[in-house]
Amino acid sequence: MTQSRRTVRWGVLGTARIATKVGAAIRRARGSELAAIASRSNEKAVSWANEHGAARSHASYDALLNDPNVDAIYIPLPPTLHAEWTIKTARQGKHVLCEKPLAMNVSEAQEMAAACREHNVQLMDGVMWAHHPRADDMLGPIQNGTLGELRRMTSTFTLHWDEIPENDLRLQRELGGGSLLDLGWYCVHATLWAFGELPLRVYATARYYRDVDMNFSGLMWFDHQRMASFDSGFDVAMRKWFEVAGTNASLICDDFSRPWNEERPRFWLHDAAGKMSEHVSDCPPQEVRMIENFCEIVRSGKLNDRWPNDAIATQRVCDALDQSARRGEVVEL
User: Fold this and answer.
1) Model-level pTM?
2) Which helix (H) or strand (E) segment is 273 a member of?
């Protein structure tokens, strides 16, 4: 796609459930077009295209990558397939938005980023909340001294399965399953976003079911007297909050991964005397903003290293946390 082209033409690689949400965002975003869908089943591809408004359908993933009328590919495949199809997409000169976790491990993530750099295409993972205006609004008091010297970050992302979905890919380690990579990824990402660097060391513990962490608790030690903790799991009520605490005040967001009320995304500041102030941000759908931000990068003709770097850093820390939980020992980064 030339810089002068206003519309980024998207292809979706697979008909996973999340593809419905992101496909709708592609259609709603400014300067974005849902051009094509691919499935390994022609029947599924045609049906999805008709239902969700894709202009064309392809009966194979390779056919989509070879479509000359597609500029960017969204990859909602299982994590075990992310590296293969991201690298193939990059080699076709198409930009890549890949679901999280970015890869199965940090080595794969680095290979994916290297392939995208080599072929001058953008790589981004699908962490939507970081694109919401509220993320920038919260980063202000974290970085400008309002909280004082940062000391603690505490976060959680959990959901409760009333009945364990035995065939779900999230219960298959070989496919990248487990609450750490599905939910804890957001907590780790948010911690690195707040503290701006990797931890020095980590420690974790988990409860396993069929060799997959059903719930997970992690500790991360950072330079300058900072520490972070989080938990994730499939066996606790929906929780998706974080607190960033400093020597003067703390910032609390009770729904960071997605606002409970999308018309009123809020967070709070609490000072040491108990005074509380509520802050409300603009409210565009975060998945739409993610697509629009991606399209702006593509149109600019200049790659943005922040997004692959953030994903690789998150992957590196998740790898270390997984090793720690399985070994029962502190892991140095």
Assistant:
1) 0.96
2) none
